[in-house]
Design brief:
The chain is α/β, with parallel strands linked by helices. The protein has one domain: Isochorismatase-like (Rossmann fold, 3-Layer(aba) Sandwich), CATH 3.40.50. It contains four helices and six strands; from the N terminus they run E-H-E-E-H-E-H-E-H-E. The protein is globular and about 45 Å long. It starts with 10 loop residues before the first strand and ends with a strand. The structure holds pyrazine-2-carboxylic acid (VGL) and zinc ion. Zinc ion binds next to loops. Keywords: Hydrolase, Metal-binding, Pyridine nucleotide biosynthesis. InterPro entries: Isochorismatase-like_dom, Isochorismatase-like_sf, Isochorismatase_Nicotinamidase. One of its GO terms (molecular function) is metal ion binding.
């Protein structure tokens, strides 16, 4: 089953941070994270079949990153470069030609959005992409930031909420207000 998105060649499906550390058993596990994988795989297939671009971001921190609690940051150690926790979920069916984007790779800065410091916006523009369709983890952190950034960069933005899950479910309401204010379409 796929969500009924009319994908085309001017669309990019952006799969955010579907990594082991954000799934059950990981260092910063999101409830319901792993269960999203089959639905995301179906979406990837639908997007590809219609000639859409498939992009996958990953949180990719150096050791001792400033966002880790032992450095005074808000998060436990997670998604350290080249560790199993930073790998994409093993069942995520990323095509070989999918675009991989690593973010938050500097010691001294965090980046929640896949557009932050990656050059992704310019790249998508060069490719003629007009709409960005977003799914993945976590709804209230990196998906929230990524969706707002996509809209700010001028892309028509669609969030597939059934293919996302939050670290803090109590934060979802505030996210919805932000999405609405920015004119972002949320597909439940
Ligand atoms: C994320 C917390 C810390 C995310 C990344 O990908 O949502 N959350 N770093
Ligand atoms: Zn992180």
């Amino acid at each position: 089953m796929t969500i009924d998105v009319d994908y085309g060649p001017r669309d990019a499906l952006l799969v955010v941070d579907m990594q082991n550390d954000f799934c059950e058993g990981g260092a910063l596990a999101v409830d319901g994270g792993a269960a999203l994988v089959p639905g995301i795989n179906a979406e990837i297939e639908a997007a590809r079949a219609a000639g859409a671009l498939v992009v996958a971001s990953r949180d990719w921190h150096p050791v001792d990153h400033m966002s880790f609690s032992h450095r005074g940051g808000p998060w436990p150690v997670h998604c350290v470069q080249d560790t199993p926790g930073a790998a994409f979920h093993p069942d995520l069916a990323l095509p070989e030609d999918a675009i991989r984007v690593s973010k938050a790779t500097a010691f001294d800065a965090d980046a929640y959005s896949a557009f932050d410091g990656t050059g992704l916006g310019g790249y998508l523009q060069e490719k003629g992409i007009e709409r960005v369709i977003v799914c993945g983890l976590a709804l209230d952190v990196c998906v929230h930031a990524t969706v707002l950034a996509a809209s700010r960069e001028g892309f028509t933005t669609l969030l597939l909420e059934a293919l996302s899950a939050a670290v803090d479910p109590d934060a979802i309401e505030a996210c919805h207000r932000d999405f609405e204010q920015a004119g972002i379409e949320v597909r439940p």
